[in-house]
Design brief:
Blueprint: E1 30-33, E2 42-44, E3 55-60, E4 72-80, E5 87-90, E6 98-101, H1 104-109, H2 111-118, E7 125-129, E8 144-152, E9 171-173, E10 179-181, E11 193-198, E12 209-219, E13 225-228, H3 229-232, E14 236-239, H4 245-251, E15 259-264, H5 273-276, E16 287-298, H6 301-306, H7 328-331
Antiparallel strand pairs: 1-2, 3-7, 4-5, 4-6, 4-8, 7-8, 9-10, 11-15, 12-13, 12-14, 12-16, 15-16
Length: 333
Amino acid sequence: MRKIIPVGASAVALSLLLTGCGGSGWDSVELSNDPSQGTAPSVSFETPLKVDEAQTKVLREGDGQEIDPGDNVMLQAALYKGSDASSLGDTYGQGAGQVLTVNDKLKESLPEMYEALTNAKEGEIIAYSSPKTSGKAGDDSTSVEVYQVTKKLMAPLNEKMKTPAKGMPGVSQDDNGTPTIAKPSGAEPKKLKTDVLIEGDGDEVKPTDTVIANYVGVRWADGKVFDSSYQKGTPVSFPLANVIEGWKEGLAGKKVGSRVELVIPTDKAYGSAKALGEKSQYPAGSLVFVVDILGTTPTPEAATRSAQPSPSASAPSASESAKPSPEASASGR
């Protein structure tokens, strides 16, 4: 299985039209068992559950850091059938969570979700149900979605960078701290090179960690950007064990809060154009990345075993095929 660079953060469908309205049976929704690493929480409620308006309920209040506008947070999600409370899937066993940015885009598209998050703390668990899910389980019950705010991430980096080391492509940044990689020059690299442009003071990245990061990648041959989380507006999360070798070796041991430039030779990236073939979606040859490490968290064992390849942040992730929310198409997200 080909190891990859991280995918985008769209796996958890956050089509939550959160309100405070009441509904038939909604007050009965309770948390039966807390979530644990790799395992979703258990919930109980009177069945069949049917709501006439969108509902929310705090099942467990958070006790961590407060969530503020502009924050990046990690979420886990689980979905339960309204007819009999059976599980319809969850993200807990697929990774450490998905990243959501609590920004103006979210405020405009889902103002109730924005309000709910900006009044939450780390650890909070929120239940949600909507009449838009009626009929999804073969009857007129409405499903129950459970979302946990697992972690507040550090803000995107916007600090003074040092000049890249000799032989490394130049890197500049705009007023928001978004980096741009200069077109590489000279012969393609034969060895992996790393350079810490901003030195963080957080925990060191372990090979077994899931890393939360912003990144931009360019081809050595022409300097063209082939993937960037900055352009998408939200960081990504990925188990370090499931990425290309250049990322594994280049990020392990670096500290949270660091900006790292990686020059990756072909044999530690995706491979040559000949090996990949003409129809490959993967960039061939040597690559250059700038990666901002915004956080780490332990990777559930099941996530390492089940990860599937994807060429870039523009492609669907392994967990997207098992996303818990049935309302993705309804909201257009």
